[in-house]
What does this fold into?
Amino acid sequence: MEAHARTFRPELPRVASGLRRRPVVSAGAAQSTTPSASGRQPAPRATGARQHPAPAPGSRQRGFSLLEVMVALAVLAIGFTALLGLHARNLEIAATERDHGDALLLARSLLAETELAGVAVPGEESGDFETTHPGRYPGWLWQRSVAPTPIPGALVVSVRVVPPHGGAGMVELELVVRGAADAA
It folds into this structure.
């Protein structure tokens, strides 16, 4: 009987996954097809590419299919598109609110000027804010009208401030002041 030249490495202890290392067969050794002492058939030698065992019937494979990944990406794309639209709308609202706040402050300053002048004369005036705030509010317009009220000696002062882009953010304030007859 011919002796086969096999070299074995000692078996390593079990690792956390429960797998053991297989014995390494030397390159010159012939492959035996007889079962070993443990009753198991020796594993065939790989010739280049790594071989993966076929999944057992009824076993569950891990990972995602291409279809699942594509559906997930489509859902993410739709979600991000919606968020981008909300962000753009939020920026519009913030700009309108900023304009509204500025218009409110400018209208209050025009009412304060009328009140500090002491005497309101019925009529209308309009203009822009270049003389009082040069370069700060380009395109912003104001209109001030003074009209009599049913109350003798009282006038209503109405101030309207319009931002450069139109009606969004426009402010109109009214104030009742003493007329010219009461000033004397």
User: Anything to note?
Assistant: Residues 140 and 163 are 5 Å apart (CA to CA). The chain is about 30% helix and 15% strand. Residues 70-183 form a domain with the Pantoate--beta-alanine Ligase; Chain: A,domain 2 fold (CATH 3.30.1300.30).
